[in-house]
Amino acid sequence: MDARQPLSTARNHLWTPRLSLTSCVRGVMTRSTIGVDLSPVQRFNYFPATPLCCITWLFTGRSEKVIASGFPVPADAPRRPIPDGAIFGGPHERPSATWNPGPVHGMMVALMPDAVRLLTGIDPAQWLDKIAEVREVLPADWIAMCDAVQHAADDHTRVQLIQDFLDPRWQAARPTTPTSAARYLDWAQGLAVRAALSAPGRSLRQIERRIKEWAGQPMRELVGVGRAERAFFAALTAEREGRVDWADIAAQGGYADQSHLCRVSRRITGFSPEALRRRISEDEAFWAYRVWA
């Protein structure tokens, strides 16, 4: 799927959480292509590997999971229908893609995995690279919240419902040593501090085991995503200033060299840093990256 087309007028938006939920909710993304004429190529949706857990709703339209071994995915790549209704997704070690047969209006709330574990008892590691209907995964009160969001009148009301549901539960369950979710790297480092201060046992192996239990992935994976995100935002800043130097960005990001950054970028996004930068600017299918930026 190499052919790129002009960006559409689809409506995409990122809602940031209220201050009391910043260590629980990373953000809420919405997208509507209703009334927008998209080509089949423009109906793909690319997502990076992520430590986050997500709940996704489609209020209008349908979605299909793309089955592909490499990126970019071919236009005729096999696809599997995603069930209607709210869908829970665990952390993803690999990038992924979906496709919409027609117009859609949907919402995705991105949740920190350690928060999901505290609030629901779910082990994020058991849902690594998996999705399922929320009724197969979440407790009854969460399912009721998901149903309320599904039938709400508008996106503003939906975001309010999500936050009003999570806020009292998070204030009651949140750890005494909080972690910031402003950036993945800050969160991962905060998670390590929390694990080190938790009793009993403070050996390196016990700390690493505790982090994987809370987040569903080992510390090295969390730090890897955090450094890649930092490089991503550094590249966006450099692009605005008209001086994208990948060797310099790699050095500032703590990578051994530019090749190291390229390998990590391909593992997390499926693309080299420069190819990803171009596609974010030019390719409709990379709308989620643009919203996050």
Give keywords.
Jelly Rolls, alpha+beta, 10 helices, six-stranded antiparallel sheet, globular, 293 residues, four-stranded antiparallel sheet, 10 strands
Any overview of this molecule?
With 293 residues, the chain is of the alpha+beta class. Helices cover 41% and strands 16% of the residues. The protein has helices at 113-120, 140-150, 155-173, 184-197, 204-215, 219-240, 246-252, 258-269, 273-282, 287-292, and strands at 11-15, 25-32, 44-47, 53-60, 64-66, 79-81, 87-89, 96-99, 105-111, 131-133. The strands form 2 sheets. The protein has a 6-stranded antiparallel β-sheet with strand order 1-2-9-4-7-10. A 4-stranded antiparallel β-sheet has the order 3-8-5-6. The longest helix has 22 residues, at 219-240. The two termini are 23 Å apart.
SSE map:
Layout: E1 11-15, E2 25-32, E3 44-47, E4 53-60, E5 64-66, E6 79-81, E7 87-89, E8 96-99, E9 105-111, H1 113-120, E10 131-133, H2 140-150, H3 155-173, H4 184-197, H5 204-215, H6 219-240, H7 246-252, H8 258-269, H9 273-282, H10 287-292
Antiparallel strand pairs: 1-2, 2-9, 3-8, 4-7, 4-9, 5-6, 5-8, 7-10
Helix pairs in contact: 2-3, 4-5, 4-6
What does the average pLDDT come to? 85
Strand order of the largest sheet: 1-2-9-4-7-10
The number of strands is 10
Percent in helix: 40-55%
Cα shape: globular
Biggest β-sheet description: 6 strands, antiparallel
Question: Total number of helical segments?
Answer: 10
In short:
With 293 residues, this protein is α+β, with helices and mostly antiparallel strands. The protein is built from ten helices and ten strands. Helix 2 runs antiparallel to helix 3, helix 4 (184-197) packs across helix 5 and helix 4 runs antiparallel to helix 6.
